[in-house]
Specification:
4 strands, Muramoyl-pentapeptide Carboxypeptidase, domain 2, alpha+beta, globular
């Protein structure tokens, strides 16, 4: 399998290993470090997208599917809200059972997308996570 230009192939278990090491070192601050990495990658990805908010959102979610980050679904996009869910998150699967959401990289990417399509910074919150037993991970923008 050849990755798309600008991407590398890396097993989710490798990233989760890094995530767990960061969590061991930083505790609850680790989540924001990982989300920051997602925002950096998401900013680069969204900068390459043109068109209206709905078109940009569809293209980024499609790209997420194509690179193996799960089956993204747009649940809601309005001028003030973005809600996305993901089935089959490789991060949640590799992490294993958890008592808190673990898909911080995905959250960061979606925060970068939200800033573009909502035309303002918007924190995303993972309100459901497969690592916690949910059917799908779910991310909602917060004002």
């Amino acid at each position: 399998m050849t990755p798309p230009p600008g991407y590398i192939l890396i097993r989710p278990e490798t990233l989760v290993g890094v995530q767990k090491a960061i969590e061991a070192a930083l505790g609850s601050r680790a989540a924001e470090c990982l989300a920051a990495g997602g925002r950096a990658g998401g900013a680069k990805a969204t900068a390459a997208l043109d068109g209206d908010a709905a078109g940009r959102t569809r293209r980024l979610l499609s790209a997420g599917r194509e690179i193996g980050w799960g089956d993204f679904a747009l649940e809601r996009l309005t001028p003030t809200a973005l809600v996305v869910s993901v089935a089959g998150s490789p991060f949640a699967r590799a992490y294993g059972a958890a008592s808190e959401p673990v898909c911080h990289l995905t959250r960061g990417v979606l925060e970068a997308l939200a800033a573009v399509v909502l035309e303002r910074p918007a924190a995303m919150v993972e309100t459901a996570c497969a690592a916690m037993g949910a059917e799908r991970c779910r991310f909602e923008s917060m004002a």
